[in-house]
Write a structure and sequence with these properties.
- This protein is of the alpha+beta class and about 700 residues long.
- It has 17 helices and 34 strands.
- Strands 20-19-18-17-13-12-11-21 form an 8-stranded parallel beta sheet. The protein has a 6-stranded antiparallel beta sheet with strand order 22-23-24-29-26-27.
- Residues about 1-40 have low confidence and may be disordered.
- The chain binds 1-deoxynojirimycin.
Length: about 700
């Protein structure tokens, strides 16, 4: 039994249901008594049996974890199902885990756990649960890609085994040649603590078919406002209005582009979200106006734990409307979080969501303006004094659902209500930007996700790639990791390498813990600042390409950042690669993620294809593996022959300042001398594209001529 596995769950999955009624009747069976005809021994056996039964029962009808008791008013329950995938050796998905892209077999570890948790200093290369959960698993081989979507929001575990695990390629070939090779097979066991079995098999056969099939069930990535693809500057905390002004000015002094400055929890008055600290942020509108004049934006945090304080309007309104989650006894559920004692709005209640959305109106959220956007954190939900730092499973939601049943959905509903609030405040015109930490299947419809509290360590930089790739496979394209690492203090080399990697990940935000020294990009010497400037400018130059990729994600469910095998589905050597990846179908990125790196090993896939180093246009015939020498300025990026990439090459202060700038098309010919590309363009912030107010150009180069339609 897995140590952290709820005993009742595994018992009831793996053995026929035990219940006190049937064990009583077994005991009454005279046949079973006949074995125990020696007096004294009979009692001992009975005692032993009772003890065993007690052990079996412990955790079934109520369960104690540290000081918390789960009352399980509905008794023990679980659902589970096994799937066998003959012919498949590579499985992916089921984010969020800090693990490689290709899922491991879990015969010798805990299964992958899906249970949204606020994990302090999470471990890497591990199947433990993190902040979000998408119960979608993909399997891929050279003939087919398929998906299993297990639609269940309760605590879920995924156990993976395979008949080829641990065998080398050589071993497998030998086995095959000796005629003893069985078909490779992966077995996947899904187990959820409550709910029903509601499972969708997505049969592909191509990767893009699976993405579309999954999107037909859960929706596609929301089209982000253009600015949100620029660079975001965050830390916990920018202290006051003057601090904000200085940091903003620092970017101009050092000629660094950026789009958004962020405010963490200290900006609010005593962590009462929707308010401003009267001493540190006395004139939020002046501050926001200053930012707006620079054609930039701000994001402020709004968490879902509400300070229990009768003089706080948000709290008293939620209480009077009876919108808080309840304890099993029917009182408002209270826990401990940033503001101290806090209660938790029931976002599963549609009326609660509508009310919450209305709080983002300019007349409700005082001091807010149209260039203020929102960050939802701690929405697993995080309850500092709850079991595993989250909510008790026997808490009760709208409609009588136990928290147990909807736990993994809570964060999605917070995100949704907030995104709808931003749409609502603009009268339905403007596209929202909301970042969330907790998520579930479908969260892509409401905005961006980040990978939570990572650390300033090289391995954390490295794992940001597979973590975002797994999210992308599960429909959530708008993903990023805290650049620089949240905990600890990155040395200048790590910080630079993180900027270089982050510039090629969809959500690009630097963030740092309250206790860390300042690390704005100009604080580590001129050389570092210059190198960070180079990569920020590259990010901005490629914004038209990023935006077009997001449009394709929005329209056709194509992941923006994709594993190599999605583009090269028959190249087995790419199936486990996660140190390099594709941005769309045109760019291959291999960030440097090692300290003191002198070289990196690059693999350029695609028989009969050609690639170009974007920095010097050197061409490489594929497939090819080679060591590329690197210096501190190296960010290995290759453009695929046959692609056309639109860029805007004039450096500016922010993305908004680039609006009227000319495009440059980078045409990289394939070996036949042809290339194709595309460009999506609209106003960058409204829903008007849904009324056909956009341009979607397809470019084509052949026989020496570039055409567009
Ligand atoms: C936890 C979040 O993960 C982190 O990014 C944030 O800075 C702190 N909460 C404080 O709000």
């Amino acid at each position: 039994m897995h140590p952290s596995f709820p005993s009742s769950l595994e018992e009831s999955l793996l053995t026929p249901r035990l219940c006190s009624a049937c064990s009583d009747s077994e005991k009454a069976d005279p046949a079973s008594e006949s074995h125990n005809d020696i007096p004294g021994e009979e009692e001992a056996v009975k005692e032993e049996e009772d003890k065993k039964e007690e052990e079996n029962d412990s955790g079934m009808w109520d369960e104690t974890f540290k000081t918390h008791t789960d009352s399980k008013p509905n008794g023990p329950s679980s659902v589970g199902l096994d799937f066998s995938l003959p012919g498949f050796e590579h499985v992916y998905g089921i984010p969020e885990h800090a693990d490689n892209l290709r899922l491991r077999t879990t015969e010798n570890t805990d299964p992958y756990r899906l249970y949204n948790l606020d994990v302090f200093q999470y471990e890497l290369y591990n199947t433990m649960a993190l902040y979000g959960a998408v119960p979608l698993l993909l399997a891929h081989n050279i003939q087919r890609t398929l998906g299993i979507f297990w639609l269940n929001a309760a605590e879920t575990w995924v156990d993976i085994s395979s008949n080829t695990a641990g065998k080398t390629l050589f071993g497998k070939m030998l086995q095959y040649m000796q005629g003893g090779g069985e078909t490779p097979q992966t077995d996947v066991r899904w187990m959820s603590e409550s709910g029903i079995i509601d499972v969708f098999l997505l049969l592909g056969p191509s990767p893009s078919d699976v993405f579309k099939q999954y999107a037909s069930l859960t929706g596609t990535q929301a089209l982000p406002p253009y600015f949100s693809l620029g660079y975001h500057q965050c830390r916990w905390n920018y202290n006051d209005e003057e601090d904000v002004r200085n940091v903003d000015a620092g970017f101009d002094e050092h000629d660094l582009p950026y789009d958004v400055i962020w405010l963490d929890i200290e900006h609010a008055d005593g962590k009462r979200y929707f308010t401003w600290d009267p001493n540190k942020f006395p004139t939020p509108k002046n501050m926001l106006t200053g930012i707006k004049e620079k054609r930039r934006k701000m994001v402020a945090i709004v968490d879902p734990h509400i300070k229990v304080d009768s003089s706080y309007r948000i709290h008293s309104e939620i209480r009077s409307r009876n919108f808080y989650i309840k304890t099993k006894d029917g009182n408002d559920y209270e826990g401990w979080c940033w503001p101290g004692s806090a209660a938790y709005p029931d976002f599963t209640n549609p009326d609660m969501r509508t009310w919450w959305s209305s709080m983002f109106s300019y007349d409700q959220y005082e001091g807010s303006m149209d260039n203020l956007f929102v960050w939802n954190d701690m929405n697993e939900p995080s309850v500092f004094n709850g079991p595993e730092v989250t909510m008790h499973k026997d808490a009760v939601h709208w409609g009588g659902w136990e928290h147990r049943d909807v736990h993994n959905l809570y964060g999605l509903y917070v995100h949704r209500a907030t995104a709808e609030g931003l749409i609502h405040r603009s009268g339905g015109k403007e596209r929202p930007f909301v970042l969330t930490r907790a998520f579930f299947a479908g969260s892509q419809r409401y905005g961006a996700v980040w990978t939570g509290d990572n650390a300033a360590e090289w391995d954390h930089l490295k794992i940001s790639i597979p973590m975002c790739l797994s999210l992308g496979l599960a429909g959530i394209s708008f993903c990023g990791a805290d650049v620089g690492g949240f905990f600890k203090n990155p040395e200048p080399e790590l910080l630079l390498r993180w900027y270089q990697a982050g510039a090629y990940q969809p959500f690009f935000r630097a963030h740092a813990h309250l206790d860390t020294p300042r690390r704005e990009p100009w604080l580590h010497g001129e050389t570092n600042t210059n190198l960070i400037r180079d990569v920020l400018r590259e990010r901005y130059a490629l914004l038209p390409y990023w935006y077009t990729l997001f449009y394709n994600a929005h329209r056709d469910a194509e992941p923006v950042m994709r594993p190599l095998w999605v583009e090269f589905p028959t190249d087995v050597s790419t199936f486990a690669m996660d140190d390099q990846y594709m941005l769309g179908s045109g760019l291959l990125i291999h960030p440097v993620t090692e300290a003191n790196a002198r070289e990196v090993q690059i693999y350029l896939p695609g028989a009969g294809e050609v690639w170009y180093d974007v920095h010097n246009y050197q061409s490489y015939k594929a497939p090819q593996k080679f060591y590329l020498p690197v210096t501190m300025s190296s960010v290995p990026v290759y453009q695929r022959g046959g692609s056309i990439i639109p860029r805007k090459d004039r450096p500016r202060r922010s993305s908004d300042c680039m609006q009227a700038d000319p495009f440059t098309l980078y045409v990289a010919l394939d070996l036949q001398g042809n290339a194709q590309g595309e460009l999506f363009l609209d106003d960058g912030h409204t829903f008007n594209y849904q009324q056909n107010e956009f341009v979607y150009r397809k470019f084509s180069y052949s026989q020496g001529q570039l055409t567009s339609r």
